[in-house]
Amino acid sequence: MTTVSSKVPLLAITMSGEAEIWTFPTNPEEFDRDARISFSRLDKKYIAVQDDGTEYEFDPSLKRWIPIMDESLIQEHQSAYAMPHADNGNSSDPAQGRKRKNDQLNDREVSCAR
Fold first, then answer.
1. Predicted pLDDT at 93
2. 35-58: b or e for each residue (b if 16 or more CB lie within 10 Å)?
3. Is there a contact between 10 and 19 (Cβ–Cβ < 8 Å)?
4. pTM score of the predicted model
5. What does the pLDDT average to over 10-23?
6. Mean pLDDT, to the nearest integer, of 22-37?
7. Which residues pair with 12 in a beta bridge?
8. CA nearest 12: which of 51, 41, 59?
9. What are the structural domain ranges in the chain?
10. How far is CA 21 from CA 11, 51, 53, 98, 113, in A?
11. Are 60 and 28 in contact (CB under 8 A)?
12. Sign for the pseudo-dihedral over CA of 58, 61, 67, 71
């Protein structure tokens, strides 16, 4: 008799841009057989940890592993998408944020809507 494993591959992109495929079982009956998975009695949930330290928690309603986002990871992601010269909207340029622009020939406002 052959059984089908309920492992679902996860695709992760490393900091160097390389893709890695990880698999965790999605059937709670198989969690005890995987050394990467433990049960948190405090949080009452299953936690899986990869070799690189990345943690996931199991969502039983979705039957999926969800990455655990801590403050340092959130900060890392925010800094990766930060604009280098952004000034948080404290600009002295009055034209910034305008929805209309001046027509240079007649010095009149022209709608940008099409």
1. 57
2. eebeeeeeeeebbbeeeeebebeb
3. no
4. 0.50
5. 54
6. 90
7. 20
8. 51
9. 1-73
10. 5, 12, 15, 46, 46
11. yes
12. negative
Q: Three-state secondary structure along 12-70? A: EECCCCCEEEEEEECCHHHHHHCCCEEEECCCCEEEEECCCCCEEEEECCCCEEEECCC
Distance of CA 36 to the CA centre of its chain: 21
Nearest CA-CA partner of 56 in 15, 19, 100, 12: 12
Alpha carbon distance 88, 99 (integer Å): 19
The first and second tokens of residue 14, run together, are: 């490393």
Q: Tell me, what amino acid is at 35?
A: A
Give the model confidence (pLDDT) of 35-88 as tens digits.
999 999 999 999 999 888 889 999 999 999 998 887 887 888 888 888 876 655
